[in-house]
Amino acid sequence: MTTAAQTTATLSAGVEPLLQRLVRINTVNSNITGIAKSEAPLAAELESLARGMGFETRRMPVPGQCDNLLVTHRCGAGKPWLLFESHMDTVSIEGMCIAPTGAELRDGKIWGRGSCDTKGTGAAMLFALGRYAAGDAAGDAKPNNIAIAFTVDEEIGMTGVRALIRTGLPSLDFKPRGVIVGEPTRLRPIVAHNGAVRWRVVTRGVAAHSADPSKGRSAIRAMTRVIDAIESRYIARLDARDAMTGKAQCSINMIRGGSQINIIPAECEIRIDRRVVPGEDPQRVLPDVEAVLKELKAADPTLEAEQELLFSAPPLSQRHNGALLAEVQSTLGKLGLPIEPLGVPFATDAGDLDAAGIPAIVIGPGDIAQAHTKDEWLEVDQLHRGVELYLALMHG
Hints:
The protein has 396 residues and is of the alpha/beta class. The chain folds into two domains: 4-193 and 315-395, Aminopeptidase (3-Layer(aba) Sandwich), CATH 3.40.630.10; 195-313, Alpha-Beta Plaits (2-Layer Sandwich), CATH 3.30.70.360. It has eleven helices and 17 strands. The protein has helices spanning 4-13, 15-23, 30-33, 40-52, 119-137, 159-168, 219-234, 285-299, 322-334, 350-355, 380-395; strands spanning 56-60, 68-73, 81-87, 105-106, 109-111, 145-151, 179-181, 190-193, 195-204, 241-242, 246-247, 249-257, 267-276, 304-313, 342-344, 360-362, 377-379. A hairpin with a 2-residue loop joins β4 (105-106) and β5 (109-111). α2 (15-23) packs across α5 (119-137), α5 (119-137) packs across α11 and α7 crosses α8 (285-299). It is elongated and about 80 Å long.
């Protein structure tokens, strides 16, 4: 059992220094930097902190990535488990106008990459768990066993949460009754969000010297027809809508083609982002676009175009999280915080949890408007309120 003495050092320092320690560790996603296992130094720091506070820790492998880290606090046999989850990776630091890992405390804010998205939630969760555990020594009864999962690769592939679901949780001797997913929501409960499908389309032509274009076939010219067809026959006809998360969206956001200015291009590629609303099937996206390409190929047998899936994340629905929401709303009400559930257009780890049948609510300190920005920051007041909320949820 964790004692108050074991948590004194961390708790007495406050949650601000804890968050500053986390921000000072650069964890830009490995898929962005090419640096393998970029979250490993942060996982080691969190593990050291958690063990110093008397908690059990466990590394959970993620194929091709740094391990997830699980921190647990057992209050008693037979008590239910509540799981908290926060991802350790961040987006790029390129173009930031402040020191990305400076973690400066100024103007009531902590500045730096990840302060808002989402090391703030991770710091608040661990600090709250320290306070929750310290109460045990005072004879304060605890209704829940608590676990915190610090996961990897949320910003690009979401492989961390998927490994947690596929192999991590099944290896444990308990099953969580629900998951509190930490993201910056200004402490508003998110019960639904859109999923995302990202893929590329490649057109192929025949290279030739630009002095005589007739000897080649331009992949760029073919791509202009593909783009026009996708935009007019697929994107323009999307009508799926969710009352909480809005309308289904799709956009062509990247293009590249050609190898040299005096060579007819043999290849051209576009990359597409599609936002899938709750109730839509992400697996239907590429087949529906393939039907458009098939029409083009039927009209022009020389057209060569193929698709490749890059990433897919399911939406978060309200199928499983009703009971957990009621609990979260009750806690929010006691703290004087807004209880109205919201939906958002962006994706989180909660979508995969929901797809696996695990109840999940997204909630945490900070504003999504500050995430990924050139001067990212988190309000200290939000951080404190986040600790209060997570602690109250642990008490049930």
